[in-house]
């Protein structure tokens, strides 16, 4: 099965029991925009990936789906 990078955005968020609305508030956007990023309809900028990696305490590589090694930032 081919992995697409944006699927990890939803996977990590849901594993932490965080809503799209909470992430939208963190990133200063709308819940609808979060849905577009998580479904691959639009690409999210690296600045947002960095914020989310720090917030979730995971590596950028993990969040982007480049590795399955979560490597927390702590």
Annotation field: number of helices: 5
CATH evolutionary superfamily = lambda repressor-like DNA-binding domains
What is the gyration radius calculated from CA atoms? 11 Å
The major β-sheet equals:
none
Low-confidence stretches: none
β-strand percent reads under 5%
Can you count the beta strands?
0
What percentage of residues falls in helices of 4 or more residues? Answer: 40-55%
Order of SSEs, N→C?
HHHHH
Give the second-level CATH assignment, the architecture: Orthogonal Bundle
Number of domains: 1
- CATH top level? Mainly Alpha
Q: Which topology does CATH recognise?
A: 434 Repressor (Amino-terminal Domain)
Q: Mean of residue pLDDT?
A: 91
Termini Cα gap: 31 Å
The best one-word shape is: globular
Pairing-aware structural class of the strands and helices?
mainly alpha
Task: Outline the structure in words.
- The protein is mainly alpha-helical.
- Helix content is 54%, strand content 0%.
- The chain contains 5 helices and no strands.
- The mean pLDDT is 91.
Write the layout of secondary structure elements.
Layout: H1 7-15, H2 20-27, H3 31-38, H4 46-56, H5 60-63
Helix pairs in contact: 2-3
What would you say about this model in short?
By secondary structure, the chain is mainly alpha-helical.
Quickly list its features:
74 residues; mainly alpha; 434 Repressor (Amino-terminal Domain); 0% strand; globular
């Amino acid at each position: 099965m081919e992995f697409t990078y944006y699927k990890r955005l939803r996977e990590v968020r849901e594993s932490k029991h965080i809503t799209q609305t909470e992430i939208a508030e963190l990133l200063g956007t709308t819940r609808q925009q979060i849905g577009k990023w998580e479904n691959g309809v639009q690409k999210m900028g690296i600045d947002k990936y960095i914020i989310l990696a720090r917030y979730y305490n995971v590596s950028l590589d993990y969040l982007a789906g480049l590795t399955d090694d979560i490597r927390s930032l702590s």
